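User: Reviewer 2 asked us to show a designed sequence for the structure in our supplementary figure. I'm pasting the structure tokens here. Could you produce the per-position amino acids so we can include them in the response letter?
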């Protein structure tokens, strides 16, 4: 992505599940740039007021000359590891009006005018990422539902069977013994029948 746009750095920032922190999930940088300039530490969402506001109002942040930004914007860009950038473009990754993250392209060597076709291409990339993130989340949820009880959160019989098969196979390969303990709890049936 970075090479295609001819920028110095391309970063994918992802929000935490409760949307209170942002961190770099993935970053590419031109060989002339140092990877050490990018912090992997989480950033509090509350410190990104200007950026999130720009996403809400304009659907993107597209700045050809960073030196024209207000002070609060410059501090936010510094927190995101964009200090020294001359031009940036950033697009939110959204799914059902939920902000999942954003992609940012930075140009440090020269000021860049972001053409409309570049903006449209970046928007297509963010839409594809939103779909991919949703698919991964859905697969995780389906897997969880297949192997864990919805009420208790405990592993179910299917998961137990899979793990037992793995342990038997491991014991067979290592020429070891394995066993299963079965507990019978008195009066548990009445609890199970009433509480689920």
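Assistant: Here is a per-position design you can include in the supplement:
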């Amino acid at each position: 992505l970075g090479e295609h746009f001819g920028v110095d750095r391309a970063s994918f920032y992802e929000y935490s599940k409760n949307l209170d922190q942002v961190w770099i999930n993935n970053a590419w940088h031109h060989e002339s740039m140092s990877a050490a300039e990018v912090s992997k530490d989480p950033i509090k969402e509350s410190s990104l007021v200007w950026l999130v506001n720009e996403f809400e109002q304009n659907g993107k942040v597209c700045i050809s000359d960073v030196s024209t930004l207000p002070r609060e914007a410059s501090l936010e860009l510094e927190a995101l590891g964009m200090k020294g950038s001359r031009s940036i473009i950033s697009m939110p990754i959204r799914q059902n009006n939920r902000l999942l993250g954003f992609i940012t392209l930075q140009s440090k060597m020269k000021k860049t005018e972001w053409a409309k076709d570049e903006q449209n291409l970046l928007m297509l990339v963010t839409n594809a990422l939103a779909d991919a993130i949703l698919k991964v989340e859905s697969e995780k949820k389906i897997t969880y539902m297949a192997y864990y009880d919805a009420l208790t959160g405990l592993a179910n019989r299917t998961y137990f069977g899979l793990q037992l098969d793995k342990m038997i196979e491991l014991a067979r390969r290592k020429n070891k013994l394995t066993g299963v303990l079965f507990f019978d709890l008195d009066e548990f049936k009445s609890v199970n029948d009433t509480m689920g």
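For the response letter, you might also mention the following. The mean pLDDT is 85. Residues 164 and 181 are 12 Å apart (CA to CA).
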